[in-house]
Amino acid sequence: MNHDSFIFKNQLITAFFCSLLAITTAIISAPASDTPPVFEVPTFVPLDKSYKVVIVIPAYNEEERIESTLHAYFDYFSKQKNLTTTFLVVCNNCSDNTAAVCKKIKKRHRQLDYIDLQPGGKGFAVKQGFLKALDYDADFIGFVDADMATTPPYFYELITKMKNHDGAIASRYKKDARIWPNRPFIREIGGKFYNWVLRHNFHLDIRDTQCGAKLFTYQTVKDIAPHMQEKGWAFDLELLYLCQIFDKNIIEIPTTWTDMPGSHLTISGCYKEFISAPLRIKKQQKKLVEKVALEKSEQRRQARIQQKAERKGRKKMPKMFA
């Protein structure tokens, strides 16, 4: 084992134990109040032109709350000017009636579509949702978790902040982000440390890779979705790494986020996946990195040839004036 690999392994091990301790603390620590605070919703600058958006909602056994989530999003987005929104629920290997609930709602709401997948995994669901969304006439394609941890105004905020960026993602760790309940100190430090390890090894200038609200341009999704391979919880990291490979300009927006009960994320499953994710993702995308690097090299070579030809052409131009 070389020195760099040794350091990297130790960083991951340290992140593992810090984050494990953090979550353990969070589990045994009860929030001060069961009632979330009412945050004042900011007024957003109106959209300067009309946009079409597809919002993918991965849903695993969400029959109890998918209807309330959809109606909250329907109500808010129907009031926004210059915006046409399609909601695409991806039922992710559900063993309950999530798909049946979506089928019932779809009869009354034309802006809703859904697909029912047998293979499991949130990453697989988001990828299939992205690929399906490419069939729509859309300017932006994104995804949001079904648990309403991100409420409609704060997903809409991503749309207002896109401007000339290739993507806008919600962040719980940027300055001015608001989270309820306040996370125990150890949990917050553990989460931030793990994100630091990821940023360090992928050279990502992103503080929060895992927040479940992200939005991209149609072209960005078209470029990256076919290359997504992570089927589980680590797909966010791969997705952002793919954006880096393709030189996408991603902006991180401080969000308002509520930690909702009923998470399907288990400690034993997610940490084994997350700790192995960085090396696995780099290995999976190695050929793509090499391919894109060759394409960029060829583009630079062709640009130099073009510049050289233009310089020669200018030298051969006859002098029209003394």
From TrEMBL:
Keywords noted in UniProt: Endoplasmic reticulum, Glycosyltransferase, Membrane, Signal-anchor, Transferase, Transmembrane, Transmembrane helix
User: What GO biological process terms does the UniProt entry carry, in alphabetical order?
Assistant: protein N-linked glycosylation
What is the membrane topology listed in the Swiss-Prot or TrEMBL record?
Answer: Single-pass membrane protein
Q: What pathway, per the record?
A: Protein modification; protein glycosylation
Q: Per the annotation, which location comes first and is thus the protein's main one?
A: endoplasmic reticulum
Q: Does the keyword Manganese apply?
A: no
Q: Which domain of life is it from?
A: Bacteria
InterPro entries given for it?
A: DPG_synthase, Glyco_trans_2-like, Nucleotide-diphossugar_trans
Q: Which GO terms describe its molecular function?
A: dolichyl-phosphate beta-glucosyltransferase activity
Any idea what this protein is called?
Answer: dolichyl-phosphate beta-glucosyltransferase
